[in-house]
TrEMBL record:
GO terms for cellular component: cytosol; protein-DNA complex. The modification 4-aspartylphosphate is found at D65. The keyword Transcription applies. It comes from Kinneretia aquatilis. It holds the Pfam family Response_reg. This is DNA-binding response regulator. Coiled coil: none annotated. One of its GO terms (molecular function) is phosphorelay response regulator activity. Keywords: DNA-binding, Phosphoprotein, Transcription, Transcription regulation, Two-component regulatory system. The keyword Transcription applies. InterPro entries: CheY-like_superfamily (IPR011006), Sig_transdc_resp-reg_C-effctor (IPR016032), Sig_transdc_resp-reg_receiver (IPR001789), Tscrpt_reg_LuxR_C (IPR000792), WalR-like (IPR039420), WH-like_DNA-bd_sf (IPR036388). Residues 16-132 form the Response regulatory domain. GO terms for biological process: regulation of DNA-templated transcription.
Length: 329
């Protein structure tokens, strides 16, 4: 059996190709052509061996024969696509079966493309380049979104025609569930859909300053911003990228309580007074009656040495800006 070959022309990032075929002549032809082109080549002569080699080598692309004894190429493709570690690898079928039903079966099994036998190495190389580029771009997008998550941002891809979430990072899913627990999981929340529907997506100024939407939930704020890339060319049926970020004033409330020697609940009441909320609204937010809020506020007035809401708010706002100069109402 042929073994992996490392050509002297390949660099440290040489792309890895797994060839799966039970005919030695086919393996040798492709192995030599790919090796000369600088690829790292792995081979397998059966579906079972290919599964093990794919898990071990993590190839960037797989060329697989459709007809093999035992596990054929169709079943191999289905198993590769069903395994998370190999599901994203592009698969190109090599087949002598030219009936439409067989070609459709190859694509339905997870194949990205197919070439017909007898194999023409130049054609295979050209097809590979197309799918390797597409896979690299997709992987780059995933890595970018994961990086956004790592820095406290989250992103979702939304279909403009109906607001359906086509893709979302784990952090985005968590934030949407936290802020919109009653909304259907597969759709962008209704308030955000309504905001998105009002945006003139083709406007050039959006490339300089993306439109934003903000949803408040207690001391937490979840903002949505349209990613500027490609907005000028969007149509109703297209998809767009929304970048989300959650901000919380919980630390500020705690610091305000410590500075003014307030209890946790008194600090919360004062925070919402600064935000311009009346007692009834504060009660709704904190799950308390307006009368209870009034009692907390009276104790706040006494501790701050003031007599009115306006004075308490002004003193607290001044202290908040000292603690956090960037803080805004």
């Amino acid at each position: 059996m042929l073994t992996p070959t490392f050509s002297g022309t390949e660099g440290p990032r040489s792309e890895r190709v797994l060839i799966v075929d039970d005919v030695p002549d086919n393996l040798a032809l492709l192995h030599d052509a790919l090796d000369e082109s600088g690829y790292t080549v792995f081979v397998a002569t059966s579906g079972e061996a290919a599964l093990a080699r794919a898990r071990q080598a993590q190839p960037d692309i797989v060329l697989l024969d459709a007809v093999m004894p035992g596990m054929d190429g169709f079943e191999l493709a289905r198993r590769l696509k069903a395994t998370p570690a190999t599901a994203g690898i592009p698969l190109i079928f090599m087949t002598g079966l030219t009936e439409t039903e067989h070609l459709v079966a190859a694509l339905e099994a997870g194949g990205a493309d197919y070439v017909t036998k007898p194999i023409k190495p130049k054609e295979v190389l050209a097809r590979m380049q197309v799918h390797l580029r597409a896979a690299a771009q997709a992987q780059g997008a995933v890595q970018t979104r994961r990086a956004l998550d790592a820095f406290g941002y989250a992103s979702v891809t939304v279909r403009l025609s109906d607001g359906r979430l086509m893709w979302q990072t784990p952090l985005a899913r968590e934030l949407l569930q936290r802020h919109f627990p009653a909304e259907p999981g597969g759709l962008l929340p209704a308030p955000v859909r309504a905001w998105l529907a009002q945006q003139p997506l083709r406007a050039q100024e959006h490339l300089r300053e993306p439109p934003r939407f903000q949803h408040e939930q207690g001391a937490r704020r979840l903002s949505f911003a349209l990613h500027p890339s490609g907005l000028e060319n969007l149509d109703e049926g297209d998809e767009c990228l929304l970048v989300m970020r959650e901000q919380s004033d919980a630390a500020l409330i705690e610091a305000m309580g410590l500075n003014f020697r307030l209890t946790a609940r008194e600090a919360e009441v004062l925070y919402w007074v600064v935000k311009g909320k009346i007692n009834r609204d504060i009660g709704d937010i904190l799950g308390a009656s307006p009368a209870t809020v009034k009692k907390h506020l009276e104790r706040v007035f006494a501790k701050l040495g003031v007599e009115t809401r306006t004075s308490a708010a002004a003193m607290a706002l001044n202290r908040l800006r000292q603690l956090h100069p960037q803080w805004e109402l």
